[in-house]
Amino acid sequence: MNIQIRPMRVLFITWDSPQSNYLESLFLPILEGLASSNKKFHVLHFTWGGPEVRERNRVACARVGITYNSVSVLRKPRSIGQFITTFRGALVIRKHIRQFGINVLLPRSTMPALAVLLGRVGTDVSIVYDADGLPLDERIEFGGQSGSSLILRILRDVEAEIVRRAHRVLVRSRGAIHVLVSRAGAGVSESKFHVVGNGRDPAVFEPSSVDRRNKTRAAIGLEPSAPLLGYVGSMGPKYLLPEMLELFKLVLRKRADSHFLILTNDPQQVLAVVKLKAELVDRVHVRSAEPSHVPALVECMDLGVALIKQCYSMTAVAPIKWGEYLLSGVPVVTTSGIGDARRIEADCGVVVDDVNNEALEGVADWFVRTVLADREGFRRRCRGLGVERFSLAASINSYEEALTGLNVMSGD
Mean pLDDT across the stretch 82-98? Predict the structure, then answer.
């Protein structure tokens, strides 16, 4: 029997809310970068978004030569509807395997993993499981769900089973490997795990010229020399907004001309907290921004803030904002225990072990005395670290390494 190496035809399966643009902004650039004469990608999107959301994603996929299809998520009854959706999704997966000659299934997170386990039965396709953090633990720590509930227990079993059956497992930190291996049980080797990145395009996030920075600052009412702290991203319970505001207050005492720019998809929620701190109201600027406008705003920051709650699930994440800050030449302050935070080197940022007043005072002092005194040096070093470890190319390389050697064969 002749054994021939086949081109890799990959079905990427994701489950996202209509408000999330992870598929378009994060994963499509990676899939596009991985595509070659030997790799062809297709996307299956579980969503409860309307026709406009699906059409936007279809167009974005078509732009980079990727086939897009979607499955409607049943949201009522809530838990049962999701499980019914996965059974329907399993049939769609089997159809894709036949129609497109899919030989690699790449489910992202737990519900797509369940659909894959159901849809793969009787086929010889390989599985590459993208764990993408510890989503079940996030449900418990931030979603208020009970770890002993029937649904969570079922999904724990799904998580362990997909790790056992997968030929490769993609994670965002070294810490996630130890957790998933221990849960999957004896016989699961760490060799199947690969740490991959959430990189950004260095041609989009890059240090800007002085003139462009000053114009951007002027457009939002800031002086060219005013120290500017910044935050980019959602502002849910995992993000330490009060501590970020406390850090800014300490900076403000040392440099009265400082400002804090917060770019988030829910500005009203943040404004409600800021208004309780009268001394900060005129110095904290909270706004939403079109994705295309975010890079220019990040580039004019002097410090990127990413204080995140230190808890079990956060040991497995890789905050996208780290890469956005560093690629833009902006030093980072973040909390230890958040993924592989120690990859942020000391001459490009600060990783704090605690967020008490003493630690925040130290960060404020470091920012004013060290960062502002060597702003161009930090801009250069941060950009270098960003390109090396947090860029789109670095992410593509990490995925490529994970897929290399995957047995995709057929017999005649």
Answer: 95
Contacts of 341 (CB under 8 A, 6+ apart): 334, 335, 351
- Tens of pLDDT, residue by residue over 31-66, are 999 998 889 999 999 999 999 999 999 999 999 999
Q: What is the DSSP letter of 148?
A: T
Q: Does a structural domain hold residue 54?
A: yes
Residue 21 shares a structural domain with residue 157: yes
CATH number at residue 302: 3.40.50.2000
Residues 192 and 91 in one domain: yes
Judge if 56 and 78 occupy the same domain.
Answer: yes
Instruction: Give the strand pairing for 284-287 and 8-15.
Output: unpaired
Q: Are 369 and 375 in contact (CB under 8 A)?
A: no
Task: State the DSSP string of 291-311.
Answer: GGGHHHHHHT-SEEEE-B---
Alpha carbons 107 and 162: distance in angstroms, whole number: 10
Contact 103, 287 (CB under 8 A): no
pLDDT, tens digit, for every residue of 154-187?
Answer: 999 999 999 999 999 999 999 999 999 999 998 8
* Element of type H or E holding 335: strand 332-335
- Segments forming the whole domain that contains residue 87: 3-199+393-411
Q: Is residue 232 part of a domain?
A: yes
Q: CB within 8 A of 256, min separation 6: which ones? A: none
Residues 21 and 163 in one domain: yes
Query: Residue written as tokens 């833009």?
Result: 328
**How many domains does the chain fold into?**
2
